[in-house]
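ZP: hey, is the manganese (II) ion complex queued? I don't see it on the tracker
AM: it wasn't, my bad. submitting now with these inputs:
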Amino acid sequence: MGKELIDRYREDGFVLLESVLTAAEVAALREAFDRDCEVPGPHRIAEDGGTAVRAVYASHLRRPEFAALMRDPRVLGPVQQLLSEDVYLYQFKINAKPAFGGERWSWHQDYAAWRAADNLPAPRQVNVGVFLDDVDEFNGPVIFVPGSHRAGLVHDGRRADARSDLHLDPEDIALTPDQLAGLVGEHGMTSPKGRAGSIVLFSPEIVHGSAPNMSPFPRRLLIATFNDTANLPSWTGEPRPEHVVLRDTAPLTALDGPFLAALEGAVR
Ligand code: HL5
Ligand code: SIN
Ligand code: MN
């Protein structure tokens, strides 16, 4: 990733890299996700009052395509540039947002969740959002408040009546309308859109959220969060389940080439 993109990430709190993965790679990831959605367990979160899949955690522990993608130089390289050479995967999720049915994700800052729930010392993370579908203004794109990461945490604490006990739903740590109005008045809002296979890198402190999916198309978004190995969570009580906070903190090494080639044994 060139200096200009790094500067943009630092300035805006996110940067969009268009069409990083090929159509064949996206197809392989979609198929892997379809299969993983069939696996029942606490890692699979349903939409409120229904059976539609809202989110699936830790698919990389069940599907080799996702495990390899995490070490693909196109994913790991930019993260190492932004954070540190020694990073590991802190969280892996795919937010499904099905056609006509995907509900909103409330306005929040990720680090507020991870500080409150996992006692994560510092916001030394980078989120990698991989578009598994084309994203447009209709299928519930993530909306960012650019530059909002520079204010640090604007909202601390979580609601007592948690929406889910399987993970922290952004609703549980949502900004107040006044907080949001103030930040948007200052910085505006923007939503990166693009073809499936595009990647958006975003800060754990940027304010973001997304609207329901009104379109007839799904909006499957993979979000991998990498953390600095020098910034491990320090739990005071029982750690959260492994599907939300991953336990393997060994530094990741990049593959020599694209993840599908690595799976096929072409590169290592
Ligand atoms: N669901 C995450 C967790 O760690 C937190 C949210 O977008 C990240 C706020 O439970
Ligand atoms: C999130 O921040 O975890 C959810 C964003 C989205 O899937 O739209
Ligand atoms: Mn988030």
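AM: back. The chain has one domain: 3-267.
ZP: great, adding it to the tracker
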